Description:
This protein is mainly beta and 381 residues long. It has 3 helices and 33 strands.
Amino acid sequence: MKKIKLLSLALLILAAAVGSVTAKDNEGKSKSFKIAKGGTLIVEVQRGNIMVQTSDKDEIQLDAVGISSEGQENIEATVSGNKLTVRYNQSEFDSDEVSFNFIVPTKLNFDLKTNSGDIKFKNNIDGNIFADTYGGNILTKNVAGNLKAETKGGDIVLGDISGGCNVNTYGGDISIGALTGNDTKISTSGGDIKIKKSTTGVSAKTYGGDIIVGDLGGDSELVTSGGDVIAANVIGNIRMETYGGDLKLDGAKGSVRAKTSGGNIEMKNIEGSVDIKTMSGSISIELNPARNSTSRISTNAGSIELTVPSSAKTTIDARIYVLGWWKEAKDTYKINSEFEVTTEDFDAEDKSIKSNYVLNGGGSAIHLKTTNDDITIRKSK
Length: 381
């Protein structure tokens, strides 16, 4: 019994000693590498955060935090020309919080990969960035270059990007500042997308959230399977689509295609043509139709409110289809207009109420269609 107690005490002392050494060895050890502005940093680590901040020095400083003394010896750092490559495989003695902290020149290109951790840039970057993580967030300040970022399980938060921007996450939100480059593709499988503005077109898709975009300076498509789509001040053509939310657009010069399976559509200050449809919701739109264009506005279950300038040269065809008792329904649903009607008809055969308006001799065409609800046509104020 005495021997057992002595053995247990010895094991406890040994464990405490090992723990003390490990904690000390896990402290960061700084290494510096001569890399000039315009060079490249490549990082491939099995686990850990990658943190980047900038300085005016022509060197890269690395502090590996949370890595055991055994692990420190296994960090591979290779300089080839003006490129630094850092690789590391996890050690069993590493702490739970591993971080690779870099201080780099302000102008540098990056290729960063971690299987489990965040990637974060604390300062603005002049260069291209490729960032890939399987289990963390990606965060940057402003980037003067191209950016490609992908995470399998986190959010992506970016500042202003002046180059191409290709961003994808499988389980988080995406937030971006101003975009001024070409070739912008944004996608997430389970979150919201927010973009402050873009001087060019944007392709944004999400399978489970909202899309909110400010100014758009080119042809764009905004598609979500489960949320609202909101955009403003579009110069170019735009496609907006959702399977379970509302569509809102304030300002567009071009062609607008919009579809929702279960929500309302609200559009203001539209100059061009539209093709918009909702399966179950109301539509409100202010439209100044482009010359000789054709616009179609329809809903299967909701009201339509159209506002056009009194000076517009257009022909408006409005139709209400009636399901149920025709005699009662034709007195229930109305086409109301501030313009003088050209022709109107109550068609008992196909159960429809029809009105036609030719404004200023006609020119463009606007088709309105709903079922079992009202249509209202107003003059712009």
